[in-house]
Amino acid sequence: MRVDQAGDLYFSDKYNSLVRKLSHGQIVSIAGNGRQGFSGDRGLALNASLNYPQGVAVDSIGNVYIADGGFAGDEGRIREVSVQNGTINTIAGNGEFRPVHDGQLASVTSLYYPYELGAGPAGTLYFWQLNTSQVYGITAAGIIQLIAGNGQVGFLGDGGPAEAAELGDELGIATDEAGNLFISDMKNGRISEVTSDGVIRTLSTNTGGSYAMAVDSADNVYFQSGAQV
Which of 26, 81, 143, 194 has CB 3.0 to 4.6 Å from 181, enough for a Cys bridge? Predict the structure, then answer.
C-alpha cells in the first residue's frame, strides 16, 4: 500500500486483477478491468488487463506504478498509470520471466516477478523481485541500475557500498522525499537505509520479521512486526 501527498491510499487487489484507491472514504478502481492477463497499453488503465498485480507506488505528482508481476511464471512487467490522462503503459519488462540485467534499458529487459515498488524523487523508481536479495532502480532515463545487494543471501557490508552488501531474500522497500531508500529485511530482522550516495546502514534491529513498511513526510519509518505495527 502507498499513500500520495493528498492522503489517498493506493493498493493492489491481487486476485481481482485490479489496483484501487481509497479516497474520502470511498474505494474506486484506477487500473484493471478485472480480467487476469496482459493488455491495454497506451489506453485507459481501467480497460487494461493486469496479471495478479503486487506492489504499487505513487510519485510526487501522482503517477501510479504497478508491479504487474504475473503468476506461475507469466509476464513480469512494471506499468505506469499517468496522472494526466489515466492511460497505462509498460515502463519495464519485456514479458520474459528471467533475471534482470544491470545497465539495460528497462523497456527491453526481462524481469523476474517484480513485487515491491518505491518511487523516489527525480523520476527514479525502485523495485524488488520476489525471492531475490537485490534492489534495483529505474532511472529517469529508463535505465536499470543495481542499488543494493550483491546477489548473495546473508548479512554483510553494513556501512559500506550498498551494491556490495549481502541482504536477505524477503525485502520490503520504501523511500523518502530526499531520495533515501529504506529496506525492511525480514530474514535478517532489521531495517536498513541506503543513502543518496549509495551507502547502506542499519537503522533498527530485532524488528520481529518486519516486511511491510512506509516512510512519512517527516521521515518517520513505520513497519509491521508480526501482528503489530
Answer: 194
